[in-house]
Amino acid sequence: MSKIFITGSTDGIGFLAAKQLLKEGHEVHLHARNEKRASDLRQKLEKEAPVLTADLSDINQIRRLARELNDFGPYDAIIHNAGVVSVPSEVIFTVNVLAPYMLTKLVEKPERLVYLSSSMHRGGNAFESELNLQEVNYSDSKLYLTTLMRVFAQQNPELYINAVDPGWVPTKMGGSGAPDDLRQGYETQVWLATGQDREVLVSGKYFYHKKQQIPNSIIDNVAFQERLLAVCEAYSRE
């Protein structure tokens, strides 16, 4: 059985993935933004599991979470599931991009890393010079995150590092009328974190419902990769 940590696992796809992994007998550590949400989460769980708290819009709390993960670790897989949409641009960037970047850099690397992308990354804009945090939208953030996935996969060829598009699914973020298959959304996360199929033992790939898809080609632009890494490094400094 695997030891897995999932960010943003109080509800939605993150919670459903955690619930499925626990049902399968894995050791799962969950994440909540604050103690109130952590308490509510513990009451929903059918099995007892550690819940770590950190507001991923706060860089100091991200650093603290990284230290706690290293104390609990090592992990076999980390699913970077947390994400926000209807918030100020700086918060979108910090939660959706900077938090997974920092946790990947600061936490002892597991064998598998899974990043929650979105089909909306195809509409994201690659900044040409300096990044204006006031102009970052959700699509941009998912383009940046998918680019980071590709870079981390290139930097760590011994690991399995991939991104997953869960589809437009009926969660709190997606809305009750979302038309996509919620089950396939979270099952793909579970599959990438624990599966042993030949199709899952790959790296640097972008998946939708357990099938590889072709992401926005800009994620392979080396100049953009370098600009993005420089921005993330600059904003994550103490």
Structure report:
This protein has 238 residues and is an alpha/beta fold. 42% of the residues lie in helices and 15% in strands. It has helices spanning 12-23, 35-44, 59-72, 89-106, 138-155, 182-194, 222-236, and strands at residues 3-6, 27-32, 51-53, 77-80, 112-116, 160-165, 205-208, 211-213. Strands 3-2-1-4-5-6-7-8 form an eight-stranded mixed β-sheet, sandwiched between helices. Strand 6, helix 6 (182-194) and strand 7 (205-208) form a beta-alpha-beta unit. Helix 4 runs parallel beside helix 5 (138-155). The protein is globular, with a radius of gyration of 16 Å.
Shape: globular
Q: Determine the oligomeric state from the structure.
A: single chain
Taking all Cα atoms into account, the compactness measure Rg is: 16 Å
The first-to-last residue Cα distance is 36 Å
Structural descriptors:
238 residues; alpha/beta; eight-stranded mixed sheet; 7 helices; 8 strands; 15% strand
SSE inventory with pairings:
Blueprint: E1 3-6, H1 12-23, E2 27-32, H2 35-44, E3 51-53, H3 59-72, E4 77-80, H4 89-106, E5 112-116, H5 138-155, E6 160-165, H6 182-194, E7 205-208, E8 211-213, H7 222-236
Parallel strand pairs: 1-2, 1-4, 2-3, 4-5, 5-6, 6-7
Antiparallel strand pairs: 7-8
Helix pairs in contact: 1-6, 3-4, 4-5, 4-7
